[in-house]
């Protein structure tokens, strides 16, 4: 059921790749200050669903309303909407040549019309926040995987987003690097950031999520409070998924 407080309101989304039905009547919502984790087996449609929220993936039926703005309306200014929804993917994709400070100031200056001095101050604050203040003048190739992901979080936050989307941000990292990124995300959750997170990190989900959305074969099978999902998942598919994930 949708909420009138929802920052992200997903309403009966259907999506096809040719004849392949990848999202099937998907409906859920993320309220202001809420953390919703989306999980499920590989190929269940998790990443596709989260990419529809900032219109990186089009959908054919239904609607998504982000902070009162409908994505199904052709007149919607999608670049403006994307600038207000921070997104962190599996891999950090900066501009290859500028150092981190220039990487993180560029969008602020172009999209937010933020002056250079103010933009650089924002960058210093955010790099300190993600534990990378000593790396401000480094280039992408000089950073480890977890450092690159923490920079991606800082870059998204530099745009003062109303919500953050995370698409398996730790899946490409070596195991010893995962906690560095999750710690930053946990801190964001504690500060009340609205977040929608696709992840297999069930420890993170248990710790910070308000709700868990479980997907299988392109459909949302469960949408439950976190405690209820982990203690007594309703579907056989979710129980099977949890037994496999938590076993490892």
UniProtKB/TrEMBL annotation:
Major place of residence: membrane
EC main group: hydrolase
SUPFAM superfamilies attached to this UniProt entry: P-loop containing nucleoside triphosphate hydrolases (SSF52540)
Transmembrane domains' residue ranges: none
The organism's place on the tree of life at top rank: Bacteria
Membrane topology: Peripheral membrane protein
EC number: 3.6.3.-
GO MF entry, a single one: ATP hydrolysis activity
Subcellular location: Cell membrane
Gene Ontology, cellular component aspect: plasma membrane
Domain ABC transporter: 8-242
Organism classification: Bacteria, Pseudomonadati, Pseudomonadota, Betaproteobacteria, Burkholderiales
UniProt keyword Signal, yes or no: no
Signal peptide (residue range): none
Record-given protein name: Glutamine transport ATP-binding protein GlnQ
Protein family: Belongs to the ABC transporter superfamily.
Keyword terms of this UniProt record: Amino-acid transport, ATP-binding, Cell inner membrane, Cell membrane, Hydrolase, Membrane, Nucleotide-binding, Transport
Organism: Paraburkholderia humisilvae
